[in-house]
Amino acid sequence: MAEVASNGPTPAPSMPSEPVPLDTIPVSPAAGVSDATNGVSSDTAKDGKIITVFDDAANFNVKHALQNTWTLWFTKPPSGKQDWSELLKEVITFDSVEEFWGIYNNITPASELAQKSDYHLFKAGVRPEWEDTQNKHGGRWSYTFKGGKANDSTWLDIMLSAIGETLEEEGDNEVMGVVINIRKAFWRVGLWTRTAGQPPKKGSAAAAEGQDQELGKKRLERIGSKFKGYLQLPETEQVEFSGHADSAHSGSSRAKAKFAV
Predict the structure, then answer these.
(1) Helix, strand, or coil here: 24?
(2) Where are the beta strands (DSSP E) in 40-168?
(3) Number of other residues whose CB lies within 10 A of the CB of residue 34
(4) Are 28 and 59 spatial neighbours (Cβ–Cβ below 8 Å)?
(5) pLDDT by residue (tens digit) across 101-151?
(6) Which domains does the chain have, with CATH numbers?
(7) How would you classify the pairing of strands 240-243 and 139-146?
(8) What is the pTM of this model?
């Protein structure tokens, strides 16, 4: 598991005064970095040193691989009658800690996004849509913050928990991605999961292992509790879980909650 904490020994590059266009985000050196050390060691690196992106953003020779590859998506505000799929844009895919920080420090903060904008951070190959084959049987944990601008620290913590693989236990294979929605009177964060606590299909590997609906629900509740912890909500507040199928049927992302923690 790669270390992705924001409070490391060296600071991340400073935020530019003007946001970089989403389609021109700088990431890695032109030559690329193939693995954790790019074939170098402390003996062969420049002046015997391992150089990270925080040392030299153009000539680093090491990167720290993430457990999964992730893709950042952006939903721009509609300018007329447009389908949601037309507003959803794939921004960039990354698989290292250094690339994440290079992206994060060069995009518009969530607190400065226009109303009806969204950021989606999903595992590569998964579109942030209910209809995606890897999402259609899943659901979403969510919490809505009323009024005010989005809290960038909260959104950063949620992204780091996702790419750092700290929201679920090994083998859960539930977390698909995380989302932030910016609206006029509120902002909302969501955590998408592969399943919605339904019983496994007959003949599936899960069914063969004797898993049942209650175990699936407990697994999701455990993930929801961790999600709530990263949001730093008071005990009196709850995060709610709803299934994508229910949302699609109701035609709203605010489908009736299946359960809450």
Answers:
(1) helix
(2) 65-75, 88-96, 117-123, 139-146
(3) 9
(4) no
(5) 889 988 999 999 999 999 999 999 999 999 999 999 999 999 999 988 999
(6) 70-91+113-260 (3.30.760.10)
(7) antiparallel
(8) 0.78
